[in-house]
Design a protein that fits this description.
By secondary structure, the protein is mainly alpha-helical. The protein has helices at 64-70, 96-101, 104-107, 112-119, 136-150, 156-169, and strands at 35-39, 42-46. β1 and β2 form a beta hairpin.
Length: 175
C-alpha cells in the first residue's frame, strides 16, 4: 500500500507521456520507451525513436505527429494543443496531444513507484488522497513520535540513541 503523495506519482524518464513530446521529430523531447497499438486485432509495437538506419533522423525521437501518422490517426489541420486553456473533459481528438494521450499505451503508463512494486511481483495499491486515518504508516509514525517524546531530553545524541528503540517498540497490532 502506498500513500497518494505527489512524489509517488512521478514517472520514469522514458515514460509514455505526451507532455514530454514535441509535435515534430527531434528537439529537446525525451526518448520514450516503445509504445503499442492495436491494428486489425493485432498488437503492434511502435518505437518512439527513429531507427539507427533512418536516412534523415537516426536515433531521434519521433514526435507526436509521426506517432499519430504511423497509427493512422493524424488528421490534416490538427493542432498540437487546443486554443482553449484546456481540452474539453469529454474530448478525445480535439488536438494532437489529447488524441495521443487517449491511446491505450499512454493511458496505461504507470508511475515509477508502481512499476518497481509490480516488477517485484507485488500488487500496488494507492491509498485514497487526504485520508491519513486509513494509512497504517501514520499509526506507526505516531507511535514512534510518542516514544521519542516520552524518552526525550532534547539533545541530538539522545534522539539518535532512541530512534532505533522507538522503531522497534511499535507493536504490530498498533499498525
Amino acid at each position: 500500500m502506498v500513500d497518494n503523495s505527489q512524489g509517488h506519482s512521478a514517472y520514469p524518464a522514458d515514460a509514455l507521456l505526451v507532455s514530454r513530446m514535441n509535435l515534430n521529430p527531434g528537439g529537446s523531447q525525451a526518448l520514450l520507451r516503445d509504445g503499442w497499438y492495436i491494428c486489425n486485432g493485432q498488437k503492434i509495437t511502435q518505437s518512439m525513436v527513429f531507427p539507427s538506419d533512418h536516412p534523415v533522423s537516426p536515433n531521434v525521437a519521433k514526435g507526436i505527429k509521426q506517432v499519430l501518422n504511423e497509427r493512422g490517426l493524424w488528421k490534416a489541420g490538427l493542432r498540437l494543443e487546443c486554443k482553449k486553456p484546456k481540452c474539453s473533459i469529454d474530448a478525445t481528438d480535439c488536438c494532437a496531444r489529447r488524441l495521443l494521450s487517449q491511446q491505450p499505451d499512454f493511458l496505461e503508463q504507470k508511475s515509477s513507484v508502481q512499476e518497481v512494486i509490480e516488477a517485484a511481483g507485488h500488487l500496488c495499491i494507492f491509498l485514497p488522497k487526504f485520508h491519513c486515518e486509513l494509512n497504517f504508516i501514520e499509526f506507526f509514525w505516531g507511535a514512534v513520535k510518542k516514544y521519542l517524546r516520552d524518552h526525550c531530553n532534547y539533545t541530538f545524541n539522545t534522539l539518535k540513541d532512541n530512534l532505533p528503540k522507538a522503531l522497534a517498540a511499535v507493536d504490530v497490532k498498533t499498525i
